[in-house]
Amino acid sequence: MKDDLWIHAGSSKTTDANDKEPVELNVSAGNMFWADDQSGQDLDIQFAVNGKRTPSLPKEFTPKATLIPNTIEGTCNSLEVYLNGQGYKILEKIPTDGIKSPGDLRAAILTCPAQPQNQKTIIKPNNNGDNEVITILKASSTLVLPENLLGEVFDIDQLSEEVVSALYDTLAENGLLALEQYEHLSNDNRDQNMVATMLVQSVEHGRVYLHFKNKYGADAALAYLKEFIFEGRFTVKSMPQWGGKLGIVFKGDRRNRAFLTGINYGIDADKVQMFSSIIQASEDMASGSWRNLRNNVSSNANPFKGTNIISFVFVASFDVYEFFTKDIGEQNIAEFLGALGITTAKLFISGVISMLVLAFAVMYLGSFGVVLSAGILFLSIAGVSFLVGWGIDALDTKYEVKDKVKLFLKDAFPGLTIENMINKDIDKNKRDIDNYIGSSAMHGSGFFGF
Fold first, then answer.
1. What is the separation, in whole angstroms, between the first and last Cα of the chain?
2. Which residues contact 92 (CB under 8 A, 6 or more apart)?
3. Which of 20, 110, 185, 380 has a C-alpha 20 to 30 A away from that of 256?
């Protein structure tokens, strides 16, 4: 049994986890002991006074407890707890102050649910009426406290400066890790684009998988992952039977497939919807249908359409983070909107370039009858999107386009800050109040006929 999975609470009061009021029992016949085993390890728990053990305690905390008949003299030496037969010394010598009868010695053991080793449980806030209290459950490397403080409940205002400092260090060590990672991403465009691309691709494939599962069944959806993504090999060629339009021709024996049961698929077919936009752009490019190409590419690159919104929300969150970490007097609305505008433009341009590059590659390879791999094409979609986005960010960093736009708008609208807006509201409310008080004071005074 590991020490950090159980808490010793030695006092004359025990508290049920579901009851905020202390439970006090008067015991005149002997010492009384409780247990609440939440570890999930089926512990055998016993207490011992002067080496005299209790029977195994009940597994759940109830007002019923195990009693050791004792005398006052027999109560005042050692107190131990045994977990699965292994003894732990709690008190070497029980203090005699306050013990007027054997029943004055009461003890309880509460075990916590077992946690994974890599999970840190540090500080647990308690709801204790109007008092702010905390329970220290487990010390981290920076929380240097006496061992007997684990499990104790403290009023926050009563903690010493050393303990408060240790708690602050612990929170800083563990609670700010996510913030540190966010700050790293806010300064690294490459990693931003990598995470955004992964999010969009993951959601897109998940969405398509669920669509196939609902329409064709779970077996067909699993077959989609195998036959389409991992084993799918195809060519893109002009199909005479379809008036020269492009089609997707899959290789292999269709009779052995559960999802791709056909050989030829039109580029708008439901089962090849993951390719349809790219191949449609390839066809528009090959036929010179530039208007259709423009509409198709623009629609698919729209940051507010489909799963693209995930990428926009993720990347734009760094503009929001930067805005709200500034002093309130520096939070300029025009500057913030300019930053969001440039972010939106960068995402749109990145999507357009990625789409054109992939459509040209598919058209070029298809013209030579090259057999393509669905898996490679999916990796190419993610890879090209990432590289193009990274390249656009690099150009923006080099030429400081975003920073210059933000500075221009900030200089053009210097008064458009959160602080000024709040002050205007405050001034307006003050004027309204003054006018109301003034008119009320004049009412019935004889001025102006009132």
1. 86
2. 78
3. 380
- Phi-psi group of 52: left, alpha or beta (phi > 0 → left; psi -120 to 50 → alpha; rest → beta): beta
Q: How confident is the model at residue 339 (pLDDT cuts 50, 70, 90)?
A: very high
Q: What is the pLDDT of residues 77-112, one digit of tens each?
A: 888 888 888 888 888 888 777 777 777 788 887 776
Looking at residue 4, its amino acid is D
What is the dihedral sign for C-alpha 69, 71, 72, 77? negative
pLDDT, one tens digit per residue, over 176-228 is 455 556 666 777 788 888 888 888 888 888 888 888 889 888 888 899 988 88
Q: How far apart are CA 349 and CA 208, in angstroms?
A: 25
* Residue 120, SS3 per DSSP: coil
| 362 CB neighbour count, 10 Å cutoff | 24
Pair 227, 259: CB distance under 8 Å: yes
Identify the bridge partners of residue 233 per DSSP, sorted by sequence position: 373
- How far is 121 from 7, CA to CA, in rounded Å? 13
Identity at 307, one-letter amino acid code: T
Measured CA to CA, the distance from residue 234 to residue 36 in angstroms comes to 63
The candidate with the shortest Cα–Cα distance to 201, out of 389, 382, 374, 387, is 382
Distance CA 230, CA 213 (A): 18
pLDDT tens per residue, range 266-299: 888 889 888 888 988 998 998 888 999 999 899 9
Q: Answer for the pair 299, 305: CB distance below 8 angstroms, yes or no.
A: yes
More confidently predicted of 120 and 76: 76
Picking from 130, 190, 128, the residue whose alpha carbon sits closest to that of residue 153 is: 128
Please report the sign of the dihedral spanned by the C-alpha atoms of residue 236, residue 241, residue 242, residue 244: positive
Cα–Cα–Cα angle for 347, 348, 351, rounded to 5 degrees: 85
Cα distances (angstroms) measured from residue 193 to each of 6, 92, 398, 399: 45, 61, 17, 19
Distance, CA of 198 to CA of 79 (rounded, Å): 57
